[in-house]
């Protein structure tokens, strides 16, 4: 019994120490003046790896989720003769929830896991130590550009997701099921608000971007540099980041729309 | 050369993001400058506001000209006082205008209908902070049914 | 940069071998004291010489290099590099100081997403504002020194182990450091590439005026090039001297190590309760 309590205590102490280390890593990586001339190409490279290469999965998922929303929404709304509300239903669910949240989950799986694995492998092959010994701070050289790339990419991806999703809902609702074209857009416009819905969605995805990228980078940076350690860290990135996104989504939703 | 292609791809990526934002802003949302540009405030007192909420639209002949920004109780008898924020584009309403609380469709949202009053040299234009006195409250279904039954009983 | 005037030690003209690195009775343990690595370890690394640090596997020779590079911090004692206490430095000064030393990792630790050329150019591009034309010349010279000028467009994954280590060596000397630390440079090499690396360490040390620390357990190779040898066992230095002096040593530990006997003062077994006890279950596992 005492052992179990001691075990619990150790878990708590470990997680506090882990959180502290993660915070320290981020502060050291981001504080200080960057050398623009050297940082810019690195940022571009990472934006490409993290953002551009995630675009395909985001567009395809967004399209399908929008189409499913169109189909399901139509089937429910048509019972009440309210199929003209399909537009706002699709748009609001995408802009407020599905856009930021699903993008963050896909991002954690696609880009987060690869960030963790890449940094873990750099650690295992002593590339990070090697940077340190060369007098190059790996936090500045490796962590910082990846963090900013993730932070800037995810809101863009979330916007693309929502836009493509609305288009998918339009394809199914208007082109296939025959909802009136004008009503679809005008009812949507009447109920979607710039500040309330779009800006709040962007704020959400900025928060998710911060958290997911941070978790992915810290898991990679602090992993045990062995093959088992890297695979654990990668799994842990996806699990932790997904749970963090869903939990934070509830909190943010409660604050914004509650 | 490789870094040039990377930069090109990232540039396109950012442009796609901006296009998505424009699409959402212009096609999906109502950015028609109501309550975002220059505005002024009008007040109206009702007996009963029914299901009116903050952010409900204010319409003239079906066109949105503003939104409800605040609902409070005021005065000795606690009457609902509604603050409306109206786009400054429409600043020529006379003080003979009237407002009523209407419902869009049978089960739809409630909104404020603004009927512009007549204009001649004896009336003044509504200014920021003015109150509209000619108001018609929301129709409450239960009251209607009650009145109907009462009138039936009288026959 | 600290100059010779900042070195606190009293300069004695008679002593030619003024030490570049001084390790002063350090204690070090991994994981909050769970695993003691060093106790009261002291060393002096003479300037401009090749110093070999030898010892059986698993006694933390790599740890020693990481301590000198200030990636790890000893619990007790201090380490000075050119008279500067490296563990007392702030982050910025430490990174500045590290430009004067470099380390050849056992795996080479080349950046896998860059070609050999870019790997060697990396420290130059990071730390200098030299134009590309001059960087190009330096990189080609350094690659020529390790015999890999023809392989500069290959990616690290396309190199053999020996070539990767030579490429990493070219990168390590790109900034003309004062100190190069070699971590097991001979491990896992075929006899030819081993010979090449032995030759390179010796030549580079002479031609560039480097100070070298070679950490290894390959006795025969390193005895031919080392100017001074430290043997570590049982958490501290058990013997030191020139190779010739050590060959003459009567210390059984040194004797065992140099001749490669399986058992002796350094036990064959990792510390454990006796096998009979453990098999009969007299003691709980661990």
TrEMBL record, chain A:
Subcellular location: Cell inner membrane
Topological relation to the membrane, as annotated: Multi-pass membrane protein
TM segment ranges: 6-27, 48-69, 89-108, 156-178, 198-217, 238-257
Recorded GO MF terms: phospholipid transporter activity
Source superkingdom: Bacteria
GO CC, one annotated term: ATP-binding cassette (ABC) transporter complex
Sorted UniProt keywords: Cell inner membrane, Cell membrane, Membrane, Transmembrane, Transmembrane helix, Transport
Main location class: membrane
Function, as annotated: Part of the ABC transporter complex MlaFEDB, which is involved in a phospholipid transport pathway that maintains lipid asymmetry in the outer membrane by retrograde trafficking of phospholipids from the outer membrane to the inner membrane. Probably responsible for the translocation of the substrate across the membrane.
Quaternary organization: The complex is composed of two ATP-binding proteins (MlaF), two transmembrane proteins (MlaE), two cytoplasmic solute-binding proteins (MlaB) and six periplasmic solute-binding proteins (MlaD).
PANTHER family from the UniProt entry: ABC TRANSPORTER PERMEASE PROTEIN-RELATED (PTHR30188), PROTEIN TRIGALACTOSYLDIACYLGLYCEROL 1, CHLOROPLASTIC (PTHR30188:SF4)
Family membership: Belongs to the MlaE permease family.
Listed name of the protein: Intermembrane phospholipid transport system permease protein MlaE
Organism expressing this protein natively: Pseudidiomarina indica
Taxonomic lineage: Bacteria, Pseudomonadati, Pseudomonadota, Gammaproteobacteria, Alteromonadales
Automatic annotation (TrEMBL), chain B:
Xref: InterPro entries: ABC_MlaD, Mce/MlaD, MlaD_Phospholipid_Transporter
Pfam families: MlaD
Residues annotated as domain Mce/MlaD: 39-117
Record-level Gene Ontology MF annotations: phospholipid binding; phospholipid transporter activity
PANTHER family: INTERMEMBRANE PHOSPHOLIPID TRANSPORT SYSTEM BINDING PROTEIN MLAD, INTERMEMBRANE PHOSPHOLIPID TRANSPORT SYSTEM BINDING PROTEIN MLAD-RELATED
Protein name: Phospholipid/cholesterol/gamma-HCH transport system substrate-binding protein
Organism: Pseudidiomarina indica
Lineage, highest ranks first: Bacteria, Pseudomonadati, Pseudomonadota, Gammaproteobacteria, Alteromonadales
Automatic annotation (TrEMBL), chain C:
Pfam families: ABC_tran (PF00005)
Domain ABC transporter: from-to ranges: 21-259
Top-level division of the source organism's lineage: Bacteria
Keywords of the record: ATP-binding, Nucleotide-binding, Transport
GO-annotated molecular function: ATP binding; ATP hydrolysis activity
UniProt-listed CDD domains: ABC_Org_Solvent_Resistant
The UniProt record lists the keyword Nucleotide-binding: yes
Keyword Nucleotide-binding belongs to the record: yes
Protein name as annotated: Phospholipid/cholesterol/gamma-HCH transport system ATP-binding protein
Species this protein is from: Pseudidiomarina indica
Classification of source organism: Bacteria, Pseudomonadati, Pseudomonadota, Gammaproteobacteria, Alteromonadales
């Amino acid at each position: 019994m005492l052992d179990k309590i001691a075990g619990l205590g150790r878990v708590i102490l470990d997680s506090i120490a882990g959180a502290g280390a993660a915070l320290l890593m981020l502060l050291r990586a981001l504080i200080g003046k960057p050398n623009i001339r050297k940082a810019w190409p690195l940022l571009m490279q990472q934006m490409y790896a993290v953002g551009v290469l995630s675009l395909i999965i985001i567009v395809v998922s967004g399209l399908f989720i929008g189409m499913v929303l169109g189909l399901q929404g139509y089937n429910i709304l048509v019972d009440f003769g309210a199929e003209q509300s399909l537009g706002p239903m699709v748009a609001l669910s995408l802009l407020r929830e599905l856009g930021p949240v699903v993008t963050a989950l896909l991002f954690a799986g696609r880009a987060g896991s690869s960030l963790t694995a890449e940094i873990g492998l750099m650690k295992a092959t002593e590339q990070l130590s090697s940077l340190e010994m060369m007098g190059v701070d790996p936090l500045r050289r490796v962590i910082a550009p990846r963090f900013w790339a993730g932070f800037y990419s995810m809101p863009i991806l979330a916007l693309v997701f929502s836009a493509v999703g609305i288009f998918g809902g339009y394809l199914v609702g208007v082109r296939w099921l025959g909802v009136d074209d004008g009503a679809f857009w005008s009812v949507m416009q009447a109920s979607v608000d710039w500040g309330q819905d779009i800006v709040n969605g962007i704020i959400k995805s900025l928060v998710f971007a911060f958290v997911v990228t941070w978790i992915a980078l810290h898991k990679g940076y602090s992993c045990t540099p062995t093959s088992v350690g890297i695979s654990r860290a990668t799994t842990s990135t996806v699990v932790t980041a997904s749970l963090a996104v869903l939990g934070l989504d509830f909190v943010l939703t409660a604050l914004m729309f509650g | 050369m490789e870094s040039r292609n990377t930069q090109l791809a990232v540039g396109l990526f950012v442009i796609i993001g901006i296009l998505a934002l424009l699409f959402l802003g212009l096609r999906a949302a109502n950015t028609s400058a109501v309550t975002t540009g220059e505005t002024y405030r009008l007040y109206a007192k009702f007996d009963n506001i029914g299901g009116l909420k903050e952010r409900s639209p204010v319409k003239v002949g079906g066109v949105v000209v503003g939104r409800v920004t605040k609902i409070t109780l005021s005065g000795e008898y606690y009457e609902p006082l509604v603050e409306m924020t109206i786009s400054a584009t429409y600043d020529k309403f006379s003080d003979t205008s009237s407002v009523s609380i209407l419902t869009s469709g049978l089960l739809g949202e409630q909104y404020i209908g603004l009927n512009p009053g007549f204009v001649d040299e004896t009336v003044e234009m509504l200014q920021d902070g003015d109150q509209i006195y000619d108001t018609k409250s929301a129709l409450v279904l239960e009251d209607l049914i009650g009145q109907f039954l009462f009138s039936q009983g009288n026959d | 940069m600290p100059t010779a005037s900042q070195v606190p030690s009293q300069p004695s003209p008679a002593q030619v071998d003024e030490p570049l690195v001084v390790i002063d009775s350090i204690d070090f343990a991994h994981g909050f004291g769970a695993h003691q690595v060093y106790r009261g370890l002291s060393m002096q690394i003479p300037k401009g010489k090749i110093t070999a640090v030898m010892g059986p596997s698993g006694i933390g020779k790599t740890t020693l290099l990481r301590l000198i590079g200030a990636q790890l911090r000893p619990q007790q004692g201090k380490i000075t590099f050119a008279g500067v206490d490296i563990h007392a430095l702030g982050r910025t000064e430490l990174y500045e100081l590290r430009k004067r030393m470099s380390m050849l990792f056992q795996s080479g630790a080349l950046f896998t997403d860059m070609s050999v050329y870019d790997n060697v150019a990396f420290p130059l591009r990071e730390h200098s504002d030299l134009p590309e034309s001059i960087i190009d010349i330096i990189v080609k010279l350094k690659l020529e020194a390790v015999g890999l000028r023809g392989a500069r467009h290959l990616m690290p994954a396309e190199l053999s182990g020996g070539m990767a280590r030579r490429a990493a060596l070219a990168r390590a000397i790109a900034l003309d450091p004062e100190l190069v630390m070699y971590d097991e440079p001979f491990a896992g090499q075929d006899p030819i590439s081993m010979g090449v690396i032995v030759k390179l360490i010796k030549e580079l040390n002479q031609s560039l005026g480097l100070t070298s620390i070679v950490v290894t357990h390959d006795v025969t190779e390193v005895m031919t090039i080392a100017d001074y040898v430290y043997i570590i066992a049982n958490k501290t230095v058990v013997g030191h001297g020139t190779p010739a002096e050590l060959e003459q040593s009567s210390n059984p530990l040194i004797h065992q190590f140099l001749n490669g006997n399986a058992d002796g003062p350094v036990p064959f077994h990792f510390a454990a309760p006796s096998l009979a006890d453990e098999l009969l279950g007299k003691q709980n596992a661990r």
